[in-house]
Design a protein that fits this description.
The protein is an alpha+beta fold. The chain has one domain (19-463): Orthogonal Bundle (Cytochrome p450). 48% of the residues lie in helices and 9% in strands. It contains 15 helices and 11 strands. The protein has helices at residues 28-38, 57-66, 78-84, 96-109, 119-136, 145-161, 170-186, 189-196, 206-231, 240-251, 259-290, 292-306, 321-334, 366-370, 413-430; strands at 41-46, 49-55, 141-142, 343-344, 349-351, 354-356, 361-365, 431-434, 447-448, 452-453, 459-463. A 4-stranded mixed beta sheet has the order 1-2-7-4, with helices on both faces. A 3-stranded antiparallel beta sheet has the order 3-11-8. A two-stranded antiparallel sheet has the order 5-6. The longest helix has 32 residues, at 259-290. The termini are far apart. The mean pLDDT is 90. Bound molecules: protoporphyrin IX containing FE. Protoporphyrin IX containing FE is lined by residues 89-90, 102, 109, 156, 268-269, 272-273, 276-277, 280, 336-337, 340-341, 343, 402-404, 408-412, 415-416.
Length: 467
C-alpha cells in the first residue's frame, strides 16, 4: 500500500511489488514508459521496498540541490552491508563517516595532498602507454576497449597506490574481473533475493562469488597498503594511500579513519573511476569517427591553440571552446550512468508537493534530464552546439548532470574531466580515427550494465599529416 500523498505509480503485486513491470536486463525503457503514464515523480515497489523515481530537471534540482541533505542517504540492503561492512564511501549512508571521508578524498584528489607529481603529470604518463599501441598500428584497425579500460584503471591506480601495471599484467586482469563480477551481482536480482530470503544466504549461489571477489581485491589493496607503511616518509606523501596514513597519524584514535576503511575506500575509488571514464572515451571516439567533420574541427582548434607547445595542459581548455563543447556533448549523449547510484531519504520530506517518508529509495532518471526537451537546443542528436552560444563561446547548461548533482555528486568529477580532456586532445592531435570501411553502419545502442557501454567496435588509425 502506498502511504498517504505518496507519488502515484503502477499497481503492485504481493512480495514481487513492481519487479514484474521492469525488464531486469535493461529497465531504462520501462522507467521512461512509466514516466509517461505517471509523471516526473512516481513510485514503485522493488519487492517490498518503496522507491521513488525522479525525472527531469526541475524535480531533480529540488531533490538533489535544494533539499540535498534530505536526499543524500544510500539504501542499505543486507547484501551491500555484508559486502561493504559499512565502510568505503560510495554506498555508505549519510553520516559522519561518509562526510569526513568524502571531504578528505575531495581535498586529496584536488591535487593538494598528492605529493610532488601533479595529477596532470600522472595522466600524461599513462597517455604515452595509449599512444604506443596506436603508433604500432598506423594504417591498421584496432579495438580500443582494453586500451581505454586499462589506461583509466592505471590512472586511478597511480593516484591511489603510486603504481601502474603493464596492460598484459595478471594483477590488472584480476582487478578488472573482480569489479565486473561484483557490480553485476550487487546491482541485479540476486541482491534482492539475498535480501528477502535469509534462509538461502548460506547456500552456494552466485552472490558467494561476490564476497570472494571482494576479498581478492581487498587482499591486493592490503598488500599495497602494507608496502606503503614500510616505505613511506610521514609528511611526504607520494600518493593517496600515503596521504591517508598521514591523516590516520594526525587524527590519532579517531576510529573512522582506519586501515580497513582505507582499503575499502580504495576499492570504491577504483571501481567508480575505471568503467565510467573508459566507457565515456569509448563512446566519444565512436561519435568522433561517425562525425568526421566534428573531429576535423576539433583538430583545427587543437593545432591552433597548441602551436609550438609539446603537450596540452588542462589550462588550455579555456582557449578551446569547441573541444570543451564536444567533450561535454559526448558525456551528455553517452549518458554513462543513466540511473546514477541509488539514493535514500534521510528524513520525512516533501518533493513537489508529494510526501516521501524517511528511508525511501530514490532513483534518479538522469537520462530524462540529459535529453530533456526545453533544456537543450538539440536534445536528441549529437551536436556540440548544445554547449556553444551565438558567439561560439562554451556554455554549460544547468541540466548537464552526467555526474549527478548535490551532496553526493561524483567525487571524481575533477579527475574525470581532466582525463577526458587530456586524453582526447592528445590523441586527436596526433591521429585521425576512421570508421573501418568494412565495418558496416555504426551501432549506437549501448549495452546496459552498471554503466552504459558502447558495443565493441574497431577503429582505423591514421597518422595526421602534420605529425
Ligand atoms: C566520466 C566519468 C564519471 C562519471 C560519468 C561519473 C558519474 C557518477 C555518478 C552519476 C555518481 C552518483 C552520484 C549520486 O549518487 O548522486 C558518481 C558517484 C561517485 N563517483 Fe563518479 N563518475 C565518473 C568518474 C569517477 C572517477 C574517475 C572517480 C574516482 C576518483 C569517481 C568516484 C566517485 C565516487 C567515490 C562516487 C560516490 C560519491 C558519494 O557517494 O559521495 N567517479 N559518479
Amino acid at each position: 500500500q502506498r502511504p498517504k500523498n505518496f507519488p502515484p505509480g503502477p499497481p503492485s503485486l504481493p512480495v514481487l511489488g513492481n519487479l514484474w513491470n521492469l525488464n531486469m536486463k535493461n529497465p531504462l525503457k520501462d522507467f521512461e514508459r512509466l514516466r509517461q503514464s505517471y509523471g516526473n515523480i512516481y513510485s514503485l515497489f522493488l519487492g517490498l521496498k518503496p522507491a521513488v523515481v525522479i525525472s527531469e530537471f526541475k524535480a531533480m534540482k529540488e531533490a538533489m540541490v535544494i533539499k540535498a541533505a534530505d536526499f543524500a542517504g544510500r539504501p542499505q540492503n543486507i547484501l551491500i552491508t555484508n559486502l561493504t561492512n559499512n565502510k568505503g564511501v560510495i554506498l555508505v549512508d549519510y553520516g559522519s563517516l561518509w562526510r569526513d571521508h568524502r571531504r578528505f578524498a575531495l581535498m586529496t584528489l584536488r591535487n593538494f595532498g598528492l605529493g610532488k607529481k601533479s595529477m596532470e603529470e600522472r595522466i600524461h604518463e599513462e597517455i604515452q602507454h595509449i599512444i604506443k599501441p596506436l603508433d604500432d598500428n598506423i594504417g591498421k584497425t584496432l579495438s580500443p576497449q582494453f586500451l581505454f579500460h586499462n589506461a583509466a584503471s592505471n590512472i586511478i591506480c597511480k593516484v591511489l597506490f603510486g603504481t601502474r601495471y603493464e596492460y598484459e599484467d595478471e594483477t590488472i586482469k584480476i582487478i578488472v574481473r573482480c569489479f565486473t563480477e561484483i557490480i553485476k551481482i550487487a546491482n541485479g536480482p540476486w541482491a534482492m533475493i539475498y535480501d528477502s530470503f535469509p534462509l538461502i544466504r548460506p547456500l552456494r549461489l552466485p552472490y558467494n562469488k561476490t564476497f570472494q571477489n571482494m576479498e581478492i581485491f581487498l587482499n591486493i589493496a592490503r598488500r599495497l597498503v602494507n608496502e606503503h607503511k614500510k616505505s613511506r616518509v610521514p609528511g611526504e606523501p607520494r600518493d593517496f594511500v600515503d596521504c591517508y596514513l598521514d591523516e590516520v597519524d594526525k587524527r590519532g584514535d579517531d576510529a573512522t579513519f582506519s586501515e580497513e576503511q582505507l582499503t575499502r575506500m580504495t576499492f570504491d575509488l577504483y571501481a567508480a573511476g575505471t568503467d565510467t571514464t573508459s566507457n565515456t572515451l569509448l563512446s566519444g571516439f565512436l561519435y568522433l569517427m561517425t562525425y568526421p567533420h566534428i573531429q576535423e574541427r576539433c583538430q583545427q582548434e587543437i593545432d591552433r591553440v597548441l602551436q609550438g607547445h609539446d603537450k596540452v595542459s588542462f589550462e588550455d581548455r579555456h582557449n578551446m571552446p569547441y573541444m570543451q563543447a564536444v567533450i561535454h556533448e559526448i558525456q551528455r549523449i553517452a549518458n554513462i550512468v543513466p540511473l546514477s547510484v541509488f539514493h535514500c531519504t534521510t528524513k520525512d520530506t516533501e518533493l513537489m508537493g508529494y510526501s516521501i517518508p524517511q528511508g525511501t529509495m530514490i532513483i534518479q532518471n538522469l537520462t530524462s534530464v540529459l535529453r530533456e526537451e526545453g533544456q537543450w537546443k538539440f536534445p536528441h542528436e549529437f551536436n556540440p552546439e548544445n554547449f556553444l552560444n551565438e558567439q561560439g563561446e562554451f556554455i554549460k547548461p544547468e541540466a548537464f548532470m552526467p555526474f549527478s548533482a548535490g551532496s553526493r555528486v561524483c567525487l571524481g568529477e575533477s579527475l574525470a574531466r581532466m582525463e577526458l580532456f587530456l586524453i582526447t586532445v592528445t590523441l586527436l592531435r596526433k591521429f585521425k580515427f576512421v570508421w573501418p570501411e568494412d565495418a558496416g553502419e555504426p551501432d549506437f545502442t549501448p549495452v546496459f550494465g552498471a554503466t552504459l557501454t558502447p558495443k565493441p567496435y574497431f577503429m582505423t588509425i591514421q597518422l595526421r599529416e602534420n605529425q
